[in-house]
């Protein structure tokens, strides 16, 4: 897919919209194709920035608040968590050049593991549930590699 076609219709996104679009695509969030969702989030982030500046926050502080608004509930993607498990726990079994394809192949197979966890909680990584999810995913990958290999 050429770059022009890929970015068609998105050239009018604001800075926050383009940032969010890239973030959603990189982390394989399903909202990456939802233009209305991206625009609404970007507008709220811009409003947050403007309000913070009017309240006297320095640019860095206002930007931090805007980014928090932009990414609230989107800190943890299924893809990013599974990627972390594969990269950290299976670096010897899954060569780096095969990791992306391997992770994408596993994603539909581990959906039920994710279904019992609330990834929209911005503090999810600090919870014991994160450790449980990580352990369950590690087990699922072990079983998959044992059955099908890489």
TrEMBL record:
InterPro entries: DUF1896, PG0816-like_sf. Gene3D superfamilies: PG0816-like. This is DUF1896 domain-containing protein. The lineage of its organism: Bacteria, Pseudomonadati, Bacteroidota, Bacteroidia, Bacteroidales.
């Amino acid at each position: 897919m050429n770059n022009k076609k890929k970015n068609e219709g998105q050239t009018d996104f604001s800075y926050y919209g383009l940032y969010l679009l890239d973030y959603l695509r990189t982390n394989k969030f399903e909202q990456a194709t939802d233009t209305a969702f991206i625009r609404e989030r970007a507008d709220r982030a811009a409003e947050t920035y403007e309000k913070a500046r009017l309240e006297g926050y320095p640019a860095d502080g206002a930007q931090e608040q805007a980014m928090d608004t932009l990414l609230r509930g989107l800190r943890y993607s299924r893809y990013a968590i599974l990627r972390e498990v594969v990269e950290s726990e299976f670096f010897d079994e899954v060569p780096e050049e095969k990791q992306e394809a391997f992770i994408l192949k596993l994603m539909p197979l581990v959906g039920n593991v994710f279904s019992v966890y609330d990834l929209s909680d911005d503090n999810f990584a600090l919870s014991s549930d994160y450790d449980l999810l990580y352990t369950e995913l590690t087990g699922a990958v072990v079983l998959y590699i044992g059955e099908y290999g890489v």
